[in-house]
Amino acid sequence: xxxxxxxxxxxxxxxxxxxxxxxxxxxxxxxxxxxxxxxxxxxxxxxxxxxxxxxxxxxxxxxxxxxxxxxxxxxxxxxxxxxxxxxxxxxxxxxxxxxxxxxxxxxxxxxxxxxxxxxxxxxxxxxxxxxxxxxxxxxxxxxxxxxxxxxxxxxxxxxxxxxxxxxxxxxxxxxxxxxxxxxxxxxxxxxxxxxxxxxxxxxxxxxxxxxxxxxxxxxxxxxxxxxxxxxxxxxxxxxxxxxxxxxxxxxxxxxxxxxxxxxxxxxxxxxxxxxxxxxxxxxxxxxxxxxxxxxxxxxxxxxxxxxxxxxxxxxxxxxxxxxxxxxxxxxxxxxxxxxxxxxxxxxxxxxxxxxxxxxxxxxxxxxxxxxxxxxxxxxxxxxxxxxxxxxxxxxxxxxxxxxxxxxxxxxxxxxxxxxxxxxxxxxxxxxxxxxxxxxxxxxxxxxxxxxxxxxxxxxxxxxxxxxxxxxxxxxxxxx
Amino acid sequence: xxxxxxxxxxxxxxxxxxxxxxxxxxxxxxxxxxxxxxxxxxxxxxxxxxxxxxxxxxxxxxxxxxxxxxxxxxxxxxxxxxxxxxxxxxxxxxxxxxxxxxxxxxxxxxxxxxxxxxxxxxxxxxxxxxxxxxxxxxxxxxxxxxxxxxxxxxxxxxxxxxxxxxxxxxxxxxxxxxxxxxxxxxxxxxxxxxxxxxxxxxxxxxxxxxxx
Lengths: 479, 212
Ligand code: SF4
Known about the structure:
By secondary structure, chain A is of the alpha/beta class. Chain A has 22 helices and twelve strands.
């Protein structure tokens, strides 16, 4: 049975899922290729901005300010959006959000909806819930369409089908859209999607989307996209429901002058994405008349309460940390067993699940810091990872024989040894004796027992030198 | 009520900590430094990279320039918002006005059936290669610039700013109008992260820059 799922309650620990995925060489090639392309493009458009660091600082300040006064900004957004003829709903958890959306769609007797790509709706598993209640959701973003037709799971924040290459997409479209003569030329694939969805755009009367930003002072919703499927979904239907995490709010309209520079450059390596749309309630004669925003908590307020990990909520979902991460670049998103993969997923997922699930994710990192360096809102992901590791250890204290427990004992012993010179020197001598049976002819250790065996499972360890620097120094009569 | 539940949770989450002093957000470049001509060049360049075509015209030959672009491209059946200046509409092209909310509106299928749409714009940004529509009388409701496969947009030099900050300064007074930033024709990077032109929005975008 495959270990791959995006439900953190059922997912295998990261090392097991990763081990399975690493056997899929085609997937690894696709992920490496796509992340290479995008990193290269990003570097070029970032390098031409000599105020890039100032923009990152500004982005961080905007997002921090929003979170520090989240309650007032949410209320301000609600007030403004409502005054403009829209409706705002609040959902404490995923189930409530599903219920609200279903209720709104039933009110207008919807049996199908068109959707703009939204990680938040994936987080609350909306499509499945709607399907169980007789409402069919059509994903209209090209990547989401690929996933939906292939019954596949998303693997990236921005390009959720980046684990598929053009030949694989061609095969899928040819089969599902009955186009035996389709070529694998990307423009031909895009054209196929255009024709396939056009009729839906013109006919389906209800749309569901996420939101990139909610602007508090004007009450506007902002969607950033490329294909125009977003514009279709937010313009043509009569009813439009946007589902947004409560952290998506920004204080001011003018904040977009920063975020609309850093988001496209970080996300797709473009100076600007083809389309960004803003709407503020209902505009007579233009677009949906029945407008809703669902504000979703689902664990976010708990993250907000912790001042170390609060920065997790600054995220604007650009995916740059995923592209930069040496671990993600090997495994892709599926190994993370959640909707949110890569470094941001490694800190967000366990917290959304109260640290009870996805406990292995904070360890799925070498702490190299590449994610922090590219993050357009300066989330210190390594800092949060280390902090969450300690939380995982705390959470598991008392559960005997857990690996985290062994690690804790080891760390305690290490601390005692490092605190005293004598103990340290004795430990070195003892280690030299103990390691003897393990050292191979080549001077390397290939196998270690117990918890330490995790190190040698993937790497070799060099044997200790026969003499330490201090011993050599002493021998020269320098002590 | 979940409204109270969520707000209460948020307030208690924040109650435990003091608001951190945040650095000012203004150190990035807000004001442009380019001359008018350099700005036009930059916009041309950036839009060109996205796959849009840019033409220049003076106010006097604007009508002719519009007609030429359409005739060359065989876009002979055009739709336009009702607030567009009559003077732009050359008789060699067949023109249909959308009613802009008042009176009888064109159906979506009807809008889609035209060869293209001609509109004005609100602002344009040189640095990001964007034109911004706020869907007023000369820009039309949003569906109008979305369904036809071709969009021809007329832009005046005084509407062009260099930076995004300058753009938001100009939009301030009309921030709550529906607003669309358009930076090139519809595209996707979803297959192998390569920008491919043309998915759902107009696949062809031409811009006419009107400068003396
Ligand atoms: S954590 Fe930063 S880099 Fe990663 S997706 Fe969020 S904003 Fe982008």
